[in-house]
Amino acid sequence: MVESQNKRDLAHARTKINFDVTDMTNFLHGGEANVEQRRYIIDLIANDPVFNKDDWGWLNHTDAVKRGIAMSTRLAEIKMEHDLNDLDFATMMEAIDDTLPIVLHNGAFIPVITSQGTEEQIDKWIPPAEKFQIIGCYAQTELGHGSNLSQLETTATFVKETDEWEINSTSFTAAKWWIGGLGALCTHAVVQARIFIEGKDYGAHVFVVPLRSLDDHKPFPGIEIGDIGPKAYNGFNKMDNGFARFNKYRIPRENMLMRFSKVSREGVYTKPPHSKLAYGSMVLLRSVLIKQMALYLSRAVTVSTRYLTVRRQFNNPTSRNDSDLNPGLETQVINYPMVQNRLFPMIAQSYALFVAGSVMMEMYIGLMTGLSSGNIGALAEVHAMSSALKSYCTTFAVAGVEESRKLMGGHGFSYFTGIAHLFASTVPSNTYEGDNYVLTQQMARYLLKEVKTARTNPDQVTPYSKYLLLGLNKSAFSRSTCSVALPEDWLNPAIQLAAFEHRCARLAYELADAVEQGGFDAANPKTWSDHNIECYRISHAHAQYVMVLWFTQAVRDAKNPETDVERRAEPASIKVLERLSNLHALHTIQTNLADFVEDGYFSPAQCQSLRAQVKSIVASLADDAVGLVDAFDHPDFLLNSALGATDGDAYQRLWDKAQSEPLNRRQVCDGYEEYIRPLLKKHGEFKL
């Protein structure tokens, strides 16, 4: 059989790669051992028939949820059979490539109890949860409230006579809503409800609430449970997002998680040592999302890069035209500069996301270690950082997934690209775990406090806010300009970081001055809301700054012989990583150029040389594009893409996939006799 041109094109592209793909893979995933373990876990899933994806495109919601439950139970069995840890479980979820009803059991139910429960509560609930004798979810969002935790309508009223809590949905809109795992699977939930003791509101707290009988799985009396139905874009189709309404449902007092806040038998409330200690679980979920965005966006650009390498359209000469090797063939789409300019920055963003995801998880682990010993010093910064990065990273990752689809032209609209499913899986990340616009207020509030610290006690400013010291001398700061003199100066990380620091400092002080001039009062949300647009700008600016900083530091560490071997890379890989880091930084500046120009920090000539440098870096990455996406190490099972498979045989695979369409099982479609024939014969016979 003659090898297709598609396969030859992708194979030829791999001969041009200037670095060791295996070395780059090890860098991205934290070392060879992690790579091998990830492959082992993915193979466990890929070789199990329960996780076969062939019919996913044709499942309705009811059938999909049943499949999701089957996959969830098999996932639990595999975890126990192979004694896998939580990281392995997360890798299994990545391999499955869909959000399952069981995901929040390990992702939220167990972590919330572990972080907010007493030792006695942990001993009671965690062992059966780890053995899946109970299966839990996390119930915070309500029909009428999501982000505004202080106004949740679900109440927990202390009944002193019986030493119980009475959980109640005080109105129709108090129903818990969108809760993953609640609709069909879970037996328990950690429920956010506002405590009332003798009529006094003590705010939202977390309770372990049994939902369904462990004998017949029926909801307990006093609880109404169901599924909220199909979601947008057919996303999360296997997830049983559910609702729950409580009608004066009683649970023991000890079911309130009391590591920090406590309520005694006598009904005496003890407040936590810090009002934000419960934020640990939110920090975890938001930190995980950053790594997930790295995996999602990298998959999208893998599919797009491979397809654009084998797709040929028109005979337009480019600087990379291969007419000498393939006379008479059309130009590979990936060789068009406009395509490269859209695609390659997203590859760089994917690499930056891998780095940011790792750093953010290290920050979370450090935070939880500190909290376990009573040290809350890092809480405010880590919470603000995770909020800012969650908002920024999920915003551009979702946009990148869709851009990857559009880059593929008409065929990109096919379900068989794998990107449609990917988009449906990523797009809700913009609104769950904190709406991306509302969430930016967290970093803005944090930076306002840092501005006050900078003005009164500059030595106490936290490391990631040190740029605020630049703005203390307003006169000097207003005169500062970018030091770029030659185009190659843009490749200096110090100059790049200086630009981001200047921008962040300016936006932070402008927000602080505006808030002060407006007479902001924390108790008056109206005046604060007037500054929400500015909050969004500074939050995303700060997120971009730390992403550029962390990527720069990761590349620097990769070539440091004293760095742990798992974080090092070979010289050829480092050379490409430096280009990616430069592209990530400079493209981010270019797409936000107004922020750097409006105060005169950049000159018109510098803007022109910046654009030229971005264009130059993009062109320099062309030979390595396929290698850079191969290094993500996403197997074909995970990509589930006819157009982005490892062998590049896109057209044959797309044809084969189309043959699996149920409509094609019959020569004459169902409905011909009922609808088509009567229309054709309505006005008599017509002879061809």
UniProtKB/TrEMBL annotation:
* Keyword Lipid metabolism in record: yes
Q: Which residues belong to any copy of the Acyl-CoA oxidase C-terminal domain? A: 493-681
Cofactor(s) required for function per UniProt:
FAD
Transmembrane ranges, per UniProt, are none
The pathway is:
Lipid metabolism; peroxisomal fatty acid beta-oxidation
Keyword tags: FAD, Fatty acid metabolism, Flavoprotein, Lipid metabolism, Oxidoreductase, Peroxisome
InterPro entries, per this entry? ACOX_C_alpha1 (IPR055060), Acyl-CoA_ox_N (IPR029320), Acyl-CoA_Oxase/DH_mid-dom (IPR006091), Acyl-CoA_Oxase/DH_mid-dom_sf (IPR046373), Acyl-CoA_oxidase (IPR012258), Acyl-CoA_oxidase_C (IPR002655), AcylCo_DH-like_C (IPR036250), AcylCoA_DH/ox_N_sf (IPR037069)
Q: Where is the Acyl-coenzyme A oxidase N-terminal domain?
A: 20-135
Flavoprotein: present as a keyword of the record?
yes
Domain named Acyl-CoA oxidase/dehydrogenase middle: which ranges? Answer: 137-231
The record's subcellular locations are: Peroxisome
Sequence similarity: Belongs to the acyl-CoA oxidase family.
Question: What name does this protein carry?
Answer: Acyl-coenzyme A oxidase
Please tell me the species this chain comes from.
Linnemannia gamsii
